[in-house]
Amino acid sequence: MSKPTKYVYEFAEGGRDMAALLGGKGAGLAEMTRIGLPVPPGFTVTTDACKVYLETGAEPPELGVEAAQALAGLERAMGRTLGAPDDPLLVSVRSGARFSMPGMMETILDIGLNDQSVTGLAKISGQERFAWDSYRRLIQMFGHTVMGVDGDLFEQAIAAHKAGRAVADDHELDTHELALLTEEFKAIIRKETGEDFPQDPADQLSRAIRAVFDSWNTERAHVYRRREHIPEDLGTAVNVQAMVFGNLGTTVTWGSSGTGVAFTRDPATGERGMYGDYLPDAQGEDVVAGVRDALPLSELKSLDPRAFVELGDHLRTLESHYRDLCDVEFTVERGKLWILQTRVGKRTAEAAFRIAHDLREEQTISEDEALVRVDGAELTRLMFPRFEVRPTDVPLAHGVPASPGAAVGAVVFDSAEAVRRAAAGEQVVLVRRETTPDDLPGMIAAQAVLTSRGGKTSHAAVVARGMGKVCVCGAESLGVDVAAREFATESGVVVHEGDTVSVDGTAGTVHLGALPLTASDVGRALETGIAEGPLTEAVLGALAHADSVRRLEVRANADTPEDAVRARSLGAQGIGLCRTEHMFLGDRRRLVEAMILARDDTAREQALAALLPLQREDFTGILEAMDGLPVTIRLLDPPLHEFLPDRTELAVRLASAAHPDPHDRELLTAVERMHEQNPMLGLRGVRLGLAVPGLMAMQVRAVAEAVTRRLRDGGRPRAEIMIPLVGTVEELRLARTETERVLAEVMGETGMSFDCPIGTMIELPRAALTAARIAGAADFFSFGTNDLTQTTWGLSRDDAEASFFPLYLEKGVFTVSPFDSIDQEGVGRLVELGVEAGRSVNPRLETGVCGEHGGDPDSIHFFHRVGLDYVSCSPFRIPAARLEAGRAALEDGTGTSDSR
């Protein structure tokens, strides 16, 4: 008989290894309770309960009893009863999924207050204003979150009371105003919902738990999960915890109260030391919301020295325990410090590398663990250019550098406008007083986020860091007027919606106009190999270790000597794809036209003879740049009509010309003769080489002559010839015979011998499925995963991405585009079959991938697992590919720093 499912766990019953069941927050609370930190007691309703609720629309039958038992235990521990009129126990109800989703789901504080218990709270605390402030907070949160009342109605009521009292902040409202506001809030709820705010504390608690369950399926939660690749079926846990209060004010008798968020290291830069924000006389949500500008955490040292020292001790304990950056929420209640939450902290790319490096230097983690805690996407962000700020560039404003980087865009003032403009191809900067979870779509669409309120732990800062977005918070000198669609600076400069600004998330500044860009320090260090500071030292160290442990080679997709030189400086171990069609563009297009228009063999041979020395020079330069390393040269792949003018353009030109050019008539005839309904599947690749006499021979001769020239000059050329779009072994055999004939011819003419492997590009499903036969005629396979994806899915990438892909991503048909990350179940399975079958016939068969999937982190891990020898990608992605290849070699044995 199976053990009945347990849906509720007291904090003392759990631990950090139960995050899937208790959520990240619940597991953290349980772990802190276990190691003896001052955590207010409580219990967690599991993700299993949420899944049942979401699937059936009802809570599990056992949940009510288990929750009541856990609440009774909490009441005994606290010596108070939930909502008792004389000395009430109050609780918070917070979401807590396995992976952190900051602000995307719901929190309700002060559950248990009602018209009777608010009086008891005032008497027991000796703070009547505090009691009414807590009650109005509950009604506002509960009314919006649980009962569905528009939150702006409550904000408008608050604004009216502040205006009437001529005060700027909520905490300046006195007891009388808060009591009046509480009654207004109740009236708003009654008007909007037709029911009264519930006075039964048990009813408040059960409805709050259900509301948190429901918040898993809000639109903003769906958007965030899609962005962060968090599975939709995990559900959220719910944490019910005894309230502690940071909004009790400061008195000589009782000591100070306040709330804050602290990090064990700077989450923006990775520097050692305590970082964070603190708000005196406030509750935790005030810090995250950014509705008041917080103080630097260091200010707590003078406000409450004992709490500051205790907090430092607890932060060191947590970082030592988790062996990572920790993000901690805390409250000081009348001098008593309470720890409310911990999790592995979200961090910027810069901080990720520095923290991993420093923890390794401190011997807290191993070199392997340090490598696994950074990733290629973070490294790529660090390679992006930065602003070149000149002495004459005076910022519009300074703020908190919450998430580094450089971004330029048009100013917008709401999420919908950011999404609209971004969809039209415009780069935008989202400007808000402070952000809320409802701003998430706009934050995703924007290049940067700028707020006039909040600090490094505000909603904008935390979410932007997690997404790698540039962010400057707390630019207090800016007056943001959302209604007027403008913001103004202290000096009187007014910036309107649509104006261009530059946001420097590293310096914490915003500038009018588009600042010029310069290479990043990391980009320079990667090309020179010289560290210029702590960050570049950390990056180069991580890459060096990745290179020492990886099995996969990393090559480049490069078509020019210049690209080859840059790729080699970035660590490329050869060229995995040199596309010869790119050498036929520009001024050379006329020679290709001559070959296509040739009326006889003699004219065609003359055109090819003119192309030969140009191709030879190209190959010579690339082989020189990659001397001693393999260079895989793909013979001409696209259909020839791509080298001719557009059919419609030619027809219009001829029709409108008074004296039509005979050459244009000849071109139009050729274009119409070569027109195909579906050129992607037409006369291209190996078919083109076999169908056009002399074309393949010219290209092979150019390669061979370039090799002999490099040998004569003392070089070590390693050219490889790749036959594209093979679907059957017979095609490859014919192409190989022609290739070997030309190679032998050149060797005979020059008296020089050299090895030139001949392989094929596997980019058709049939080629993958018949790989065992094809391998008998191939020295290597290179999987062209771009075309293999198109032919496997039966779609055109350009057409699909312009039409139904956004819908498919929105509806979850794709979690990510199969052109961005390899479709492991479909296309990936064909790659795996091709490798296995090919090596069963030819054990020495070299295999690689040359589509842009070769630079995608998840795809690289897959290619490592299926046994490819190398990946090839664009030069810019080489450092990230090297890093991910090293991480892939370690992925089975080392934990990551997953701060989702």
How would you describe this protein?
With 900 residues, the protein is an alpha/beta fold. It is 46% helix and 17% strand. The strands form 7 sheets. Strands 14-24-23-16-17-18-19-15 form an 8-stranded mixed beta sheet. It has an 8-stranded parallel β-barrel with strand order 26-27-28-29-30-31-32-33, surrounded by 5 helices. The protein has a 5-stranded antiparallel beta sheet with strand order 1-2-7-5-6. Strand 16 (406-412), helix 16 (415-423) and strand 17 form a beta-alpha-beta unit. The longest helix has 25 residues, at 601-625. The model has no long low-confidence stretch (mean pLDDT 91).
What's the helical proportion of residues?
Answer: 40-55%
Q: Which parts are unreliable, with pLDDT below 50 for 5 consecutive residues or more?
A: none
Instruction: Describe the largest sheet.
Output: 8 strands, mixed
Q: What overall form do the CA principal axes indicate?
A: elongated
Strand order of the largest sheet: 14-24-23-16-17-18-19-15
